[in-house]
Every structure is written in C-alpha cells, then in structure tokens.
Amino acid sequence: MTAKLYHYAMRILDGVLAVMVGLLVLDVLLGVASRYLWGAQVKWTEELATVLLVYVSIFGIAAAFDRSAHLGIDALTSRFDAKTRKRLALFAHAVTLAFVVIVFEIGGWMLVRQATVNWNVLPALQVSDVVMFLPLPLGGLFVLLAEIRNLLADARKNFEREREEN
Fold it and tell me: Are 152 and 90 in contact (CB under 8 A)?
C-alpha cells in the first residue's frame, strides 16, 4: 500500500514538474518576444520566471532523489569491501536525511512562517513572497520520502553481488 502511495506521489511530482517547466519556457518566450515586438518586456514575466525556476529546482532535486540520480563519488567507495561500502551508503543516507530535515523542513517552514508574518508582496505578480519559500518544505517532503526509500533499499541490498556484476 505504501509503495503505491509513494509511486502516485512521485507521479504527481513529475507531472507538476513537467507543467512548471512548460510554463517556464512559455514565460521566458513571452518575455523575450515582448521585448522585441513591443520594445518593452511584459513586467511580470521576469518575476514569474524566477518563481518557477525556484520550484523547478527544488522539485527537480526531489525527482533526482527518486531516481537515485543525485551525485555520488563511486570512485572512492568502489575500492572498499562490500561491508564498508554498505556502511558508507547508510551513513550517507543518514547525513542526507539530517540535512533535509534541518535545512528543507525546519529551515523551510521557518522561512514560510516568517514570510507570513512579514507578508511582503512580490511587486510584479502581486502575490505574497510565501510562494518563494514554500517549495523548500514541500520539495523537502518529497526528498525525505525518496531518501527513506533509498535508505531502506540500500539496507536490504547485497553489496557483494553488486561488485561481482560490475
């Protein structure tokens, strides 16, 4: 049941990410076209591009974790025996989880709360700047889900067999 929920959550993330990338492309095209056609850029296109880029970046991190496509230094760990490689992998997952909880979740929610207290408005879009900080804790939840799944997979993984296959 939880595997199905995880799968659906990540499919929703992928769909939202695809829509946001499409909107980002259209927004940038509109900004460039307006500059050349009318001699002045539509005011809100640059600000919207910034907001969309923040969302695409943070949600893209979560999508990369889902696919285990994040950066790793295999050249170092491949020299160790299977038991040490497994310990290093589990340690890396623990450090990543701690980082995500501290930076994305605790820090992200603190920024969102502070933005709701101050209630600044993005000038061109006329929306609260909460929209700039919201992707941190939301994307962080997706990263946490993916990283916990990756940790459990590595805990069950046979690192000795992996070395034989390579």
Answer: no
